Amino acid sequence: MTDTFQSSSPIYSQLADRINRKILRGELQPGDKLPSVREMAIQSNVNPNTVQRTYRELEGMNIVETKRGQGTFVTENQEILTEMRERLKEEEISQFVKGMYDMGYADEEIEVGLNKFLQEKKGDSEQ
Amino acid sequence: MIELNQVTKKYMGKVALRDVDLQLTKGKIVGLVGPNGSGKSTTLKLIAGLIHPTKGHITVNGVEVDHRIASQVSYLSELDEYYGFYNVGQTIDFYASQFPDFNKEKAEEIRAFMKLDPNAKLKHLSKGNRGRLKIVLTLAREVPVILMDEPLSGLDPMVRDSIVKGLISYIDLENQVVLITTHEIKEIEFILDEFIAIKDGEIIGHHNVEQLRTEQNMSIVEWMTNSYQ
């Protein structure tokens, strides 16, 4: 079964996010072919028009390229992939920090807390 | 592709639809939502040419709708109206003999996708499998307009999922428009391009689903919760 989508943002961009994350995790490698629009629609239970839009969006960001008659492929341009990796990191951090601010934490507390968390995690995995 | 112009429908003096204007273009899956008795099935039957408007005009591809519109419209009824003594294969053959636009190869493909046994007698089919067969018969026709009245209602989640997947797989979005009435909005929300909300015979909203999310951060269900109070 497929995960569900959040109601607050458009489905095409949530689907684009998922594909980006797959690329970051290495489940999709540079040069890999993406499923056809129809296949992707069936896999994710969404409208083929939505998938079309997702692919167009990713194409606009040069993360994928469509070769006529062959399909859509993950770019092999490392620069673009590195840039995406940075951008998604910044987005995630900014979300996290915003959440912390909403709860009233100050910068120092966030920094100390994050460091402590990472240290403890390191300790756990070394045991 | 489908146009309703100031359409009113009364049953024995009781208004089912009032002054409805509606335009639908091809390449879209459109949901028609609203409470029971709000006029969803009436709208579908009017477009299918099964009933006639009391007032106003309906056209499909520029042609004024009457019973002959059946050549342009594939209609899935809310009811089960099939011959119990036929088996699945015979039912498909019967449909092929009735509609020149019926694509038997496609029907075969969808039947296999739905895992329906061609030799199973209709009177012995489960409710879920009858629901699946209706999808086979409706989608195998190569017509510009597909109308589905409650294709998911009363079916279990597995069947609903196979029907949604069948829709995604076999609709020809280059050439067709699909209009679906449903209460199972969550199930179908992600495959809709647009939805039309209807209440007491009047259209109270017609939205592009993605636009609603982008502009108002709302899903269909949230929009309905706000609008049907």
UniProtKB/TrEMBL annotation, chain A:
Residues 9-77 form the HTH gntR-type domain. This is GntR family transcriptional regulator. It comes from the Bacteria. PANTHER family: GNTR-FAMILY TRANSCRIPTIONAL REGULATOR (PTHR38445:SF6), HTH-TYPE TRANSCRIPTIONAL REPRESSOR YTRA (PTHR38445). InterPro entries: Tscrpt_reg_HTH_GntR (IPR000524), WH-like_DNA-bd_sf (IPR036388), WH_DNA-bd_sf (IPR036390). It comes from Evansella vedderi. Keywords: DNA-binding, Transcription, Transcription regulation.
UniProtKB/TrEMBL annotation, chain B:
The keyword Glycoprotein does not apply. Gene3D superfamilies: P-loop containing nucleotide triphosphate hydrolases. Pfam families: ABC_tran. Residues 2-225 form the ABC transporter domain. The keyword Transcription does not apply. Keywords: ATP-binding, Nucleotide-binding. One of its GO terms (molecular function) is ATP binding. Coiled coil: none annotated. This is ABC-2 type transport system ATP-binding protein. It comes from Evansella vedderi. CDD domains: ABC_DR_subfamily_A. InterPro entries: AAA+_ATPase, ABC_transporter-like_ATP-bd, P-loop_NTPase.
